[in-house]
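Researcher: Dear colleague, please comment on this protein.
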Amino acid sequence: MKSEIQDHADFTQVRYANCWEDADILIQALAPRDRHCLSIGSAGDNSFSLLAAGAKQVTITEMNPAQIACIKLRIAAYQTLSHREFLILLGEADGSSDARYALYQKCLPVLDDETRNYWNHFTAHIRDGFGRIGKFENYFSLFREKLLPLVHSQEKIHRLLAPRSTSERHDFYQIEWNTWRWRLLFRFFFSRFIMGRLGRDPAFFKYVEGSVADRILMRARHALTELDPSENPYLHWILTGNYGQHLPHALREENFLIIRENLHRISIAPRPMESVLSDSAETFQAYNLSDIFEYMSEENTENLLRQIHASSDPGARLAYWNMLAPRSRPETLSAHIKPLPTLSQKLFTQDKAFFYSAFIVEEII
């Protein structure tokens, strides 16, 4: 069974070398301990976070072979490397290209032939740090290296990322950061046209209405004022090229050994979620749906939610992001799925991956 997006988008390259969704709020939403989780793969980070949070089992659904290669190399790195070495291989900790390649060699014995052949073909990506080579990462790198210096100096960027009180952050944003050059750059670089060609596939904007840049600019203001930029790994990566001292959940040292010791609880289903649901003889109790409905019509969103309901135990949790296309449980499914708006809004206000317009948490009745 195919997913709608397969008919419109290219799935032959690494789109995301990292997960750009906040696992801290995902874990609070799904309460994954002792649950069988079905999780959108992407680069794998948030699936590993569910494992670290006590999931009984995590089934990863991913239809892009390049993304599966990223997930499998991460698994091999968890198995064979130290935490510090893992960060070096990703490109998050200092290390030479030769050092990264040597660490990759340590991973080879536990990689299957297909994954080994894939990365042997892209050894330049290994040497660069394989957490830096996705289309989305390249998009942010272009923003950081070529365009942001036209608007703000390195000194001002470092000041933005310094710890401040909420009122001090608002003052800094209004007085020093939110210049007309910043707004102009933002509206250009995060427009539907530029983002579709350089960051995401144009097909991902099929159901988007209104100004893409204006919505993301509003969320960026929230991240720079209401949240603490000094503790935001995603903002650090975009503005400086690395996560800084505050790593995403799956990369934190305190979670590293937990993930390593529980990798046997992970399985990868190399096909769309619709196919996994129709084939599975088991039920699921938690769903990390990423922003899957962003790429679907309202009709197909409802169809997938019906499938999820049929494959779930009562009390199963669903969590997903809206970026620009508003999606949530339709009224036709009100007898089967209930929204959790208070929890959704509470977690959304904490979301460090600031480019999403909503975070939706729902529960199977």
